[in-house]
Amino acid sequence: MLGPRFTDDVADLPTFKFGPSSLTWWGIIGYMVIEGAAFGLAFAAYFFLMGHEQGWPPEGRQAPDVLAGTLFTIVILLSEYWNTQIKKAANAGDVPAIRRLMPLMVAVGVVLLIIRGFEFNSLNCRWTDNAYASIIWALLLLHTAHILTDWLDTVVLAALMFTPVAYEGRRLVDVDENSLYWRYVWLLWIPIYLMIYWVPRL
Amino acid sequence: MTDVRAGDFEGVAGRPAPSERERVEAENRRLAEERKKIVRDGPKLKGEKLAARLDATWRRPPGIIGWLATVDHKEIGRRYIVTALLFLALGGVLALAMRLQLARPDNNLIGADRYNQLFTMHGSTMMFLFAVPVMEGVAVYIIPLMLGTRSTAFPRLNAFSYFMYLFGGLLLWGAFVLNIGPDIGWFAYTPLSGPQFSPGKRADIWAQMITFTEVSALAAAVVLVCTILKTRAPGMTLARMPLFAWAMLVVAVMIIFSMPSVALASSMLISDRLIGTNFFNAYEHGDALLWQHLFWFFGHPEVYIIFLPATGFVSVIVETFCRRPVFAHAVVVLALISTGILAFGLWVHHMFATGLPRVGYSFYTAASMSVSIPTGLQIFCWLATMWDGRPRFEVPMLYVVGFIITFVIGGLTGVMVAAVPLDLQLHDTYFVVAHFHYVLIGGAVFPLLGILTYWYPKITGRMMDDTLGKIGFWMVFLGFQLAFFPMHWSGMLGMPRRVYTYPAGLGLELPNLLSTIGAFVVALAVGLFVVNGLVSLYRGRIAGPNPWGAASLEWATSSPPPVYNFAHIPVVESNTPLWDNDGELPVVTGLRVDEKEMLLTTVVAATPDLREPVPEPSLWPLISAIAVGVVFISSIFSPWAIAVGLVPCGIALTAWFWPKELKRHPEPVID
């Protein structure tokens, strides 16, 4: 084996950074792409099935009622205000602000999940009715899974932020990346909202 | 560097109460003092003293618990490879059973139902439980060594990925043993696989096996992408990255884009079957072709997911055994990337016989033929390397030659069936069976056998026997031709795939008998390979760190490598670091030796960026995999299993991430 020739020393390198330097940032981007691919293909299936129908929704069906879905959309878009504040606080190392704001995001998640229940109730169809009904149920269910996983992640992270490890830089990177993920959750919701509620009204 | 400086709170709204702030500042000062005492590698700590300390830090606890909790990429990679080879053997036994049945016309050794299970199990096992996992397993083992680092990214996710794969394989084979093995073909076309034509649980078993293996492959893909982009040795810019790492990067990205498609499709199928959705039910305006689109949007890239790692193997072997860098490194990289992109534009060529718009025929024919261009470029680059180098025809290199011959034949029949008129004639005949075995066995299994021979000394510390290896190669190569070349012939005579027997007097007797004889020759040769591998574990010649005189970093450490891979992190100054040095390996120092730590570098230039803690062994990946596995399997019987089962999954995943000690450390650790 070759003997070592010493060059640099890396002992002074940091142990955390925000953004693309972070390993978990890449992991999260990886999972975002996976989910994006799944959603994109579900969207493709939606339009594929739509192409087979004379009308959308198919004749004799009512489009979903827009009230609950629209309310959901407004709340999730507004939640970005707190989400941005949390992200900024994480980057500034402002643990007290995070401790104040994260429980609010947990509460927002609860509100969203409750509204989501009403959304399922306003689709005006059951998943067994026909292919149209199956695909809009599938879209709403996929996004609910998305909301639920990020909400659970937020709950766990919020709990962690009330322990002494909140002052570890890597935990702040977690908070930063959780906020990044929340942006993705609401960004993906916009096309789904349009496809469930408004494409059937075109 | 770990903690938040107290000064950061100044000027921020809602500053902490003074008592809290003072407490944090005091803690920061204490941690800063402790940090000075941390021991790191360097000119003062090297050699045996360093090795002993690193070993104590990195070694997992002994015993069964430690074995199950391991996060060492070498251990996980070995398990992946061994498990995948076991599934190869099982899938091979099924192939032999089928060949025995087809050896004679009107044979009644195996009935139609059992035969349906056999070819379904053979295809599903080979694609989902052997080919993809074995490539991932080899990569998981070798990539961190090749990149000069101590661990993969997210080692616990890596462990989770292995267990999910194992459970998916056990589900499929357990069901087969209980006579509820799927019987719907490896691509499970609807409506055959739907609730109307496949009552019972066989199709559900298939669909959930898919879910297991996709979760596993996606996790492994994320691990590999992050490892390749962020953990390369300092100086290993993207331009200097070994071709195998490039191939695995492209493959992992392809997995990330394609596997969600089959996961979505299998979820839709299972929901059609279990809760009465209508995605594929034509009576309620669903469409069976939706299945085919979703399946092949995954299924075609899948072929390249299996083939591209093998091209990486070929580049590795050609470089070492020709004693020169692969000709036109950049062209090979671009060919890998363009194959990866083109692979997503070909899926419809599996559906020519379903009736497509004219323009669809033309487009997908052109696209299918165009993918042979980058593949052809790679082959010419390897040939040029051999031409210019001094090839040594040792066993791995023989497999490369066998690969080139066999793969080119398979590629040519591929170009043939890319033409719609011919495809409509040959669709679903043995000609297609011949074609894809030429590209999959010739294109992937031959290089795999070559690379296993090549990396065997690195993994075990001993060489495989050369004579047995050469005999094995010739038996595999010739037996393969004997088994599969006659299938072109029987296919052109009109013999369809997936029939359990055929009548006498159609001219199919001879080609089928030849195929059966060939299949047994291949099986014997694979058996010989296994015997060679087992015997050499004990009797093989001791290998030493670099027995082949290779150029890449996995050969810069001992064989087998120590648990921490490298005592100091190597620095890379060229494409072929072990050929271009003056007898010393440049290294960086300063990583911790008292806790597990690795170095992260920047994505493109690979300059040192961060120090990253490496997780301790943990049982939670296994427990999480069990919890998720229980949900997947029980959901076959009741949809409520998903709602109920989410609770243990949530608990297990939370416990996985939750720090074991809620206190701050002088530098971060993942305990």
Report what the structure shows.
The complex is a heterodimer of chains A (202) and B (671). Chain A is mainly α and 202 residues long. Chain A contains five helices and one strand, in the order βααααα. Chain B has 19 helices and four strands. A two-stranded antiparallel sheet of chain B has the order 1-2. Chain B has a two-stranded antiparallel ribbon with strand order 3-4. In chain B, strand 3 and strand 4 (608-613) form a beta hairpin. The longest helix of chain B is centred in the N-terminal third of the chain and has 36 residues, at 112-147. Chains A and B meet through strand 1, helix 1, helix 3, helix 4 and helix 5 of A and helix 1, helix 7, helix 8, helix 9 and strand 2 of B. Strand 1 of chain A pairs parallel with strand 2 of chain B, so a sheet runs across the interface.
Labels describing this entry:
heterodimer; A: 202 residues; mainly alpha; Four Helix Bundle (Hemerythrin (Met), subunit A); elongated; B: 671 residues; two-stranded antiparallel sheet; 63% helix
What is the structure about, briefly put?
The complex is a heterodimer of chains A (about 200) and B (about 675). With about 200 residues, chain A is mostly helical. Chain A has 5 helices and 1 strand.
Topology:
The complex is a heterodimer of chains A (about 200) and B (about 675).
Chain A: E1 3-9, H1 23-50, H2 67-92, H3 95-121, H4 131-161, H5 169-198
Chain B: H1 18-36, H2 47-58, H3 63-69, H4 73-102, H5 112-147, H6 155-177, H7 202-230, H8 243-274, H9 288-322, H10 329-342, H11 358-370, H12 372-388, H13 395-418, H14 420-426, H15 430-460, H16 466-492, H17 509-539, E1 569-570, E2 584-589, E3 597-601, E4 608-613, H18 620-634, H19 640-657
Antiparallel strand pairs in B: 1-2, 3-4
